[in-house]
Design goal:
This protein has five helices and eleven strands, in the order βαββαβαββαβββββα. The protein has 220 residues and is an alpha/beta fold. It has a single domain (3-219), classed as Rossmann fold, CATH 3.40.50.
């Protein structure tokens, strides 16, 4: 059975959906939560960097103008996880915050607060939904077979300057980068939340998020 490490405890409310999605695809989910158990990466087949709080803007050489609930220990842990995973060429799937920290790791930067948040930020009750444009030569086109797909949205930050080696492969209707892949490493990342677009959270107004997890697990 393939093993996938997820950064974050299963018991944390927002993390349960990631574990459920990985396990629904026939893989074993392994918890990675401390610098001491980074060595787990050597024995797993892939890593999921999930959503969460904002990154410290100091990581991309900016002052904090609108980054919220910054957690330096989490930033440091995930940077160490990415570094070790790349050294082992272990596949990585980044989601929301995971998408953003991968961009920053490769030298990119973030928009600290999107000026036009009407289609992106959480409503307070549920995720928003919007259309996107997908590049044909991309992992998302391989998964969904379409140049236009609808996804959910619950973020106030986004990729600004693209990190070195990353290729933007999906864009929102208002021009934000919604997904990236790396030109060399087995690395895929999306700004949206596929774990909230599948299984008990499946919705008729978006594509099936479980197909992204299945693609990643099949790739590894």
């Amino acid at each position: 059975m393939k093993q996938v490490a997820i950064v974050g405890r299963r018991e944390t409310a927002r993390n349960g959906n990631y574990y459920a999605a990985v396990e629904a695809c026939g893989a074993q989910a392994v918890t990675l939560i401390t610098p001491e158990n980074i060595k787990l990466i050597e024995n797993v087949d892939g890593i999921v960097l999930p959503g969460g709080v904002d990154l410290n803007p100091a990581l991309y050489h900016e002052k904090n103008t609108d980054s919220r609930d910054v957690d330096d220990s989490l930033d440091n842990l995930e940077f160490a996880v990415i570094q070790r995973a790349l050294a082992l060429r272990a596949p990585i799937l980044g989601i929301c915050r995971g998408h953003q920290i991968l961009n920053v790791y490769f030298g990119g930067s973030l928009i600290q607060n999107i000026a036009h948040t009407d289609i992106h930020t959480w409503t307070g009750k549920e995720d928003r939904v919007h259309g996107t444009r997908v590049k044909k030569d991309s992992f998302l086109y391989e998964i969904y077979g379409a140049e236009e797909i609808a996804v959910n949205s619950a973020h106030h930050q986004a990729v600004k300057e693209l990190g070195k080696g990353l290729e933007a492969v999906q864009f929102s209707t208002d021009g934000l980068i919604e997904a990236v892949q790396h030109v060399e490493f087995p690395l895929y990342a999306v700004q949206w939340h596929p774990e909230r677009m599948c299984l008990k959270n499946a919705r008729a107004d978006t594509v099936d998020g479980l197909r992204l997890f299945a693609y990643f697990i099949n790739k590894i």
